[in-house]
Amino acid sequence: MKIYMIRHGKTAGNLKGRYIGTTDEPLCEEGRAELKGARSDLQSGADTVSDVPVNGGPAKGGEDFLAPDMLFVSPLLRCRQTATLLFPGVPQTIVEDFRECDFGAFENKNYLELSGNADYQAWIDSGGTLPFPGGESREDFQRRCVRAFQSVLHTAAQKGFREIACVVHGGTIMSVLSALALPRRGYYDYQAKNGCGYLIEWKEGERADAVICRAEMSFAGGTCREIQ
After folding, report:
1. What's the pLDDT band for 218 if we cut at 50, 70, 90?
2. Which domains does the chain have, with CATH numbers?
3. What does pTM read for this prediction?
4. Residue 226 contacts by C-beta under 8 Å, 6 or more apart in sequence?
5. HSE (CB half, 13 Å, CA atoms) of 80?
6. DSSP state of 224
7. Residue 66 pLDDT greater than 90, yes or no
8. What's the rounded Cα separation, in Å, for the pair 139 and 118?
C-alpha cells in the first residue's frame, strides 16, 4: 500500500513563523496559489513525479496521481482546504487525532514574541522535549498520532486499498514517521515544509511499525524526489 503523508499549505501564521496548533486558520492566498499551481502542473501530464511508481505503474503526472482510493484529513480547516485543492471531488474522511499539537501558552506566537519567556527558553534548551505549558507533551501528541495512523492503515487494508493520502500537519508527520518509518530518524529529521511530505509504503500483514519511507515530495512545486 502506498501512503502519501502531506503537510497542509501555507497559512498567515506560517508566514510569520508562529506556532499554529489548535488555531483553526485558513490557507493564505500564497498557500492556495502554490497548491493550485501544483494541481495544474500534475494535470498537465508533466513528468513532475518521475521515478516514483503510482497506481502500480511509472509516475508520469496526470490525474491518476491525485486519485487516492481514500483520503484522510485532519479536522482543521487548513488541512481540509489543502485536500480540496489537491484532490477535488475526493471524499474526505476526518481523523480527529490527526490534528496538530496543542502548543498551549506558545500558541499563535513566534520566537520573537516568546523571547525572554523562561518557559520557552526551557523548552528550547530541552531540544523540544518538554511539554508545552498548558498544552500537550510530545509523548502524548505522538502517541495519539501513531494510534490514529495505525487505525487508518487497518481501515484501508480491510477495504483492500492500494493507495491512500493523509493531509495533515508537520507535527503529525514527524510524530508518525519518527516512530514507525524506516529508515529510523529523529523526530525533527522528518520535518516537512508546507505543501510537502513523504511517500511511504506498507505491506499488509507486516507490522505497522515498519513502514518504508520511499520519497520526499513537494506538492507546492509539483515535484517529487527519491530519498538517497
Report:
1. confident
2. 2-226 (3.40.50.1240)
3. 0.88
4. 51, 52, 214, 215, 216
5. 13
6. E
7. no
8. 22
